[in-house]
Design a protein that fits this description.
Number of helices: 4
Oligomer: single chain
Distance between the termini: 10 Å
Structural class: alpha+beta
């Protein structure tokens, strides 16, 4: 199940915390290339052991290899995080400003 974070989190601190336990690759995009880069990113997420991150106001998708407990790592309460089944909905909620960050664990 994918997750969105509604609590504000400093993007660079979030990335540094994730990099302590996971390998990271980023996919930079602009307004023209976003759909193409997103599709490439989603294809990478089909492999076992990977999860993705998309953050508000950052024109990048992040691919991580590893296992992480998001709630524990970021010290989040149940009110700070919500589950979302569809991966595109994760992207849309972040783009609309309804979430600070979205974690994609499965492609649907």
């Amino acid at each position: 199940m994918n997750k969105i974070v509604t609590k504000w989190i400093e993007p660079y601190i979030l990335l540094e915390q994730l990099k302590t336990t996971c390998d990271m690759k980023n996919f930079v995009f602009d307004g023209v290339s976003k759909t193409q880069i997103k599709n490439k990113f989603f294809n990478c997420l089909k492999e076992d052991g990977y999860f993705g991150l998309y953050m508000k106001n950052v024109n990048q998708f992040y691919l991580f290899k590893g296992i992480v407990d998001i709630e524990t790592l970021l010290n989040l309460s149940k009110d700070d995080i919500k589950e979302v089944s569809d991966s595109q909905t994760v992207i849309d909620l972040v783009d609309m400003g309804r979430a600070e960050a979205g974690f994609i664990f499965n492609i649907s």
